Amino acid sequence: MPELPEVETNRRGLAQCVTGLTIDQVDIYWPRIVKTEMDLLKWSQELQGRTIERMDRRAKYLIFVLSQGLALVSHLRMEGKYFYYPVDQIPEVKGKHVHLIMTFTDGSQLQYQDVRKFGRFELMPQTELADYFKAKKIGPEPTPESFKLDGFYASLGKISRAIKPALLDQKLVAGLGNIYVDEALFQAQIHPLTPAKDLSYDQASRLHAAIIDVLARAVEAGGTTIRTYLNSLGEAGSFQVQLAVYGQTDQPCPRCGHPIEKMVVGQRGTHYCPICQPLYEV
Predict the structure, then answer these.
(1) Residue 181 is assigned to a structural domain of this protein
(2) Which keywords fit this entry according to its UniProt record (predicted)?
(3) 60 is catalytic
(4) Residues 78, 40 share a domain
């Protein structure tokens, strides 16, 4: 599943490809991919003639900022991918899993592919974006400017459940998924089952720093390729070579040498070192 680093890498790739292009038409091949009460033909027509002024991102959502005050919000969910094709490279046959094609006035295309059909598109005025994300209760972006330690620690104190699922629900901080939660908890030396409210200020501080660091390094590496992830330029991310625990079951811990173990936490496969990440600090 694309997590924040993969979505940010997609944003950067799309920004290179489509910024400044004007939409000629939008073809929808699976109606449910669009979340709207509007007739789909009218929905597509709303996009015609709009220029993509820039590409933004909020948490795991991509935002096409369009001319005349409109925004197209795209959530990739599990398997969503974008592929941009110059006019002379457009495939002759539409791919089986391509569910939306945006054709630009210069003849190039942006194709949205989604094997599992979980991704969604929503169209709205740019003035509604802030309320849209506020309603989803998405936490701050994982940057030093937005993600403050004291606020994070105060929020942890109100949560009784385990720290891993608490981080996954996006309310404490935006953009964390399974891979990067495991990596951040390992870096901070915190057991995934530790109740969030039991974290000391020192632990919260380590975790806060680890979240910012892990996600920043993953963005720099272009994301993590596990199975099928590619960015909008068709390039694979490389952060998988830096993974300390995720997918490393039975491999030696890079810190202490003990085999990495795997368990299920909140229905998610979870990788950790039982030595470096004790459930209770001594």
Answers:
(1) yes
(2) DNA damage, DNA repair, DNA-binding, Glycosidase, Hydrolase, Lyase, Metal-binding, Multifunctional enzyme, Zinc, Zinc-finger
(3) yes
(4) yes
